[in-house]
Amino acid sequence: MSKTYIPVILRRQIKEAANHCCEYCCVPEAVSFASYHIDHIISEKQGGETVFSNLALACRLCNLSKGSSIAAWHEFREALIRLYNPRKDAWHQHFQFRPSGLIVARTEIGLGTIRVLNLNDLNRVSARSALIDAGVIMEG
Ligand SMILES: [Zn+2]
What we know:
Layout: H1 8-17, E1 37-40, E2 55-58, H2 60-66, E3 71-74, E4 79-82, H3 91-94, E5 95-97, E6 103-105, H4 108-116, H5 122-133
This protein binds zinc ion (ZN).
């Protein structure tokens, strides 16, 4: 959660840049029961600023799961791997949708982000599957 006030015009810019979808799980805000949060990609706790290049639109579940995290522990490498950055990375470079609603990692960054943000929680996969079936979000 942001501690700093985010001006309305900046919120609008972020929502438009995100095409009104969560920039992590891709679910549109229009089908959510709760308004989306503005996420500090690099958390304020880690020194992230409240500027366009460090803000992303995130659904409640992604934002709460991410918290102030900026990296994920990679067990085999015994190293921290940064999380996906919606302002610097292309979503499809790191992730792929399956028709089942599952999000599959294409990279280590994607793998760690899926784990930290709990993107493949059973309920979330089920909801995305229904949204894919309805043509609201595209697989692939
Ligand atoms: Zn999300």
